Amino acid sequence: MAVPARLEPGPRAGADDSSVLVATTTLVGLLAVSAAFVFLQRPELVILAFAAAVVVFVCAVRVDFALLLLVATVPLEGAIQLGSGSDITISKLAGGLCFASFFLFALATRRRLLFDGSHALILVLLGLALLSTLQATEVPQALSTTVRYASFVALYIVVSQFVGDHRLQRRLVWVLSAASTVAGLLAIENFLSGAELQAALPYTSTNDTAFVLATTLPLTFWLLRGGLGTRVAAVAMIGVMSASIVLSFSRGALVGLAAAAVVHVLTQRRHVLVLLLGVLAALVATFAFVRTNPAQIETGFEAKQRVADENVASRLEAWKGAVELIEEKPLLGVGPNNYREHFYEATGRPPGTDNPLVVHNAYLDVGAELGVIAMLLFLAYVGVVLWRSNVATRRGNGPPGYATAVRSALIVAAVASLFLSEQYYAPLWLLGGLATALWWENRHPATLASAEQ
Fold this sequence. Notes:
mainly alpha, 17 helices, globular, disordered N terminus
């Protein structure tokens, strides 16, 4: 690391410096008095501010802690709203801390960062999103979505750098599983209380909640490899998440889980008993929650049944509309998150009728909003990270069985995305970063941290 140039001595302290000292002391005193006054009136604000300052400081000096904090907010993003109508979420705040911490770490250590074709793919995809934003009908919502894309690109880049850091990879699963369990409990409580007709968090859709939990579930199953205490905790978390997914009545999430289970049984037959244990935990937990309020369960199920056929027809129409938009604007699409603005003209529906807002297919959604090239890049990204997770599984990279769990989670995400628009959510990008980090393990022994330090 280069040695900074020596600083020249400043002017000698003299009489003029006393006024600076007095002013500084006065300012500090005023701040202390103000803090004391606020503490007497609203002590919780001072405590909250102090806690926030501690978190920011720790994130600034520990990039791994900053990443874990970001991961913890992913399942809970839909549970907390920071201000009425605000676009700022806890995930965005945690993401800002994480990416700033990583930037400072990279500058301070001057480590060579890994960069390969997958990073180029998503950077080009982000560039196309920026170009598409410029010609969108609703530029503000397009720009907001593009910023969200940028955060996922940053998430993938950061996670993919932790090659060989098995300790962090284990902690990541624990943090994600624990946060998903809390999200699952909140979603179930929201359902059983009658606030929603399906298990969902207050500020997000049922399908989005189920998608995050379903992609976490294979990683939580991996925790069953631990000791007795770890297994008990894992079974409890699997039960809560599974019950929440079932009570969400999200068919896309369930189809994704079924596909991952089939692949896992065909390739890892010795884990059949573990899989059956997880299914049993899911059934027991679901039955237990059903018994607490059977009338609400019946109401939710009947409501889902009434709209089931209509949902299928609506999604087929949404897919057809997306294809029409891809044909009309193949280069840059209609703009990020602007599908809703073109739904009526693409499908021929009269304005005022039901608008699904999204395509309910991540791949067609990207094609309609960002263009054909972006859709192909997104498909290529999903294919690359799936392939890398499979290679890492064959090589046994990472902690024992870890790569298999990541592959199963990616299968859930890839298959469920055929029925859900989940390119705007973290799982595909977080899991992709893990797959790349595992894949690189044989090529680069350790970058940000050595394994098992």
